[in-house]
Specification:
- It is a single chain.
- This protein is an alpha+beta fold.
- The protein is built from 14 helices and ten strands.
- Strands 9-8-7-6-10 form a five-stranded antiparallel β-sheet.
- Strand 6 and strand 7 form a beta hairpin.
- It is globular, with a radius of gyration of 22 Å.
- The protein starts with a strand and ends in a 15-residue tail after the last helix.
- The relative contact order is 0.10.
Length: 380
C-alpha cells in the first residue's frame, strides 16, 4: 500500500480505501480504478493524497466496524472543523454538544474493542483530526471505566476543545518537524497554547467540569505556567482519561511531515510509572482498542519475526507469538519460555492495519493455545 499525492495520481491506479463526501456518502469504493474524472474529483475535494494498492497487492481485509469507523472519521472532520473554527472566532458552537452526543452514542457504549485506524494528517487538518480522535478515545475509555453519561459528555467535549491553541498556530509553523523547530519557533508555539488555555479558562459559558478537564490537561501537556497555580491533590478520572487519550493519539498519529511512533512505543511510554499516567486510564485504553490482537505481525527483540495468535491475558505486551523462523509458539508471558524476549515493534501497513483476516488465522492455526504450556510447538 502506498500513499500517493493527488498531483501524482494516474489513471488505472486502484484505491486502497474508499472515498466519502462530507455527508458520509461513498463516492469511490475500495479497489476502484481511478479515471481521469476521479482524479480531478479527488483534487477538487482538497485531498492531499490517497492510499493506493500496489499493482499485485490484494485488497486487505476490512470489517464492517472498520469501514464504519473510517466513514465516521471522514464525515466528522467537517463538523469538528466548523465547531473549532467557531470557538477560535469566539462564536457560539451550536453543533458541539450534538456532535459529542453522537460520538458517545457510537463509541461510548461499545462492549468490544475497535481497530483504531488513523487517517494521514496534514499541517492544515491535524488539529481537527486530533480533536476528533481524542474525543473518540475518551468515549471508548469512559465506557470501560463506567462513567456516568454526564461525565462521559464532559470528557468528550473537553477532548474536542483542550488543544484549541494548536489551531491558532500558523500553518507555516505546523509544517515544521521537531528537528526543524528553533527555540524561537518553540516560544511562539507556546504563546499560542497559552492563548488557547486563556480562551478556555475565561469562557464563562463553558460547563465547569469541561473547563476543568480541558484546562488541566492543556496546562500539563503544554507545560503552561500561570500565576494562580493550584495544587491538585486528588486525581480526576476524566482528566486522566483525556490525558492518556491525547498523548496516545499524538504519538501514533500518521503525520504528513514526519513518521509516527508505533503503538508499542506509545504504550510503553504510557505504562512507564515515571511518566505519571494513571494506570487505570491506560488499562481502559488497552481494553478499548486493538493493539496486539491476533493477526498482527511483530518484530521480536531477538531479531526474529512472528505472528500474534493470542493476546496476552495479563500483560498486553506479552502475547502468544508464532515465530516465523522455526514455527514455534512463544508464550511471552512465561519467562521460562520466552526468557528475555519481548515485542520490539509491530510490522504494519501504512494505514496501521494488520493484513491477516481473523477467520483465516483461526482456521490456519488450529487448536487453541492454553496458558501454562511450557514449550508448545505447531507446524504448518
Amino acid at each position: 500500500m502506498l500513499f500517493v499525492k493527488s498531483d501524482d495520481l494516474k489513471t488505472g491506479m486502484r484505491l486502497a480505501k474508499p472515498i466519502y463526501n462530507k455527508n458520509g456518502v461513498m463516492l469511490y469504493e475500495r479497489n476502484s480504478k481511478l479515471t481521469s474524472q476521479g482524479i480531478m474529483s479527488i483534487q477538487n475535494f482538497g485531498l492531499i493524497g490517497v492510499y493506493i494498492l500496489e499493482p499485485a497487492e490484494p485488497l486487505p481485509p476490512m470489517s464492517e466496524d472498520d469501514i464504519e469507523f473510517e466513514r465516521f472519521q471522514t464525515m466528522s472532520v467537517f463538523t469538528i472543523k466548523e465547531v473549532l473554527d467557531q470557538v477560535v472566532d469566539q462564536k457560539e458552537a451550536k453543533e458541539m454538544y450534538p456532535f459529542a452526543n453522537q460520538v458517545i452514542k457510537r463509541y461510548g457504549n461499545l462492549h468490544h474493542k475497535i481497530n483504531f485506524v488513523q487517517n494521514l494528517r496534514s499541517a492544515e487538518d491535524a488539529p481537527y483530526k486530533h480533536a476528533l480522535n481524542t474525543a473518540i478515545l475518551c468515549a471508548l475509555m469512559s465506557k470501560r471505566l463506567k462513567l456516568e453519561f454526564k461525565e462521559q459528555l464532559d470528557v468528550v467535549v473537553a477532548g474536542i476543545l483542550y488543544d484549541i491553541g494548536s489551531l491558532m498556530v500558523p500553518v507555516s509553523l505546523r509544517k515544521l518537524t521537531k528537528d526543524e523547530l528553533t527555540e524561537e519557533d518553540k516560544t511562539k508555539i507556546n504563546t499560542y497554547h497559552y492563548a488557547g488555555y486563556q480562551m478556555l479558562s475565561q469562557d464563562y459559558n463553558l460547563d465547569p467540569s469541561v473547563k476543568r478537564n480541558a484546562t488541566l490537561v492543556c496546562k500539563e501537556l503544554f507545560n503552561i505556567k500561570t500565576d494562580d497555580e493550584v495544587t491538585v491533590t486528588k486525581r480526576v478520572t476524566e482528566v486522566e482519561i483525556l490525558k492518556v487519550a491525547a498523548v496516545y493519539d499524538n504519538m501514533t498519529a500518521m503525520k504528513y511531515e514526519e513518521p509516527p511512533l508505533s503503538e508499542i512505543a506509545a504504550l510503553r511510554y504510557l505504562l512507564a510509572k515515571e511518566n505519571g499516567f494513571d494506570q487505570s486510564a491506560v488499562r481502559a485504553l488497552v481494553d478499548s482498542i486493538n493493539i496486539l490482537q491476533p493477526g498482527v505481525a511483530v518484530e521480536l527483540s531477538n531479531g526474529d519475526r512472528g505472528l500474534v495468535i493470542t493476546e496476552g491475558p495479563i500483560d498486553i505486551l506479552r502475547p502468544f507469538v508464532l515465530s516465523f523462523r522455526d514455527n514455534q509458539v512463544l508464550n511471552l508471558s512465561d519467562e521460562a519460555v520466552a526468557g528475555d524476549i519481548e515485542i520490539k515493534d509491530v510490522m504494519r501497513t501504512m494505514d496501521n492495519r494488520h493484513v491477516v483476516a481473523i477467520d483465516m488465522l483461526q482456521n490456519y492455526i488450529g487448536e487453541e493455545v492454553h496458558m501454562g504450556e511450557s514449550n508448545p510447538k505447531k507446524h504448518f
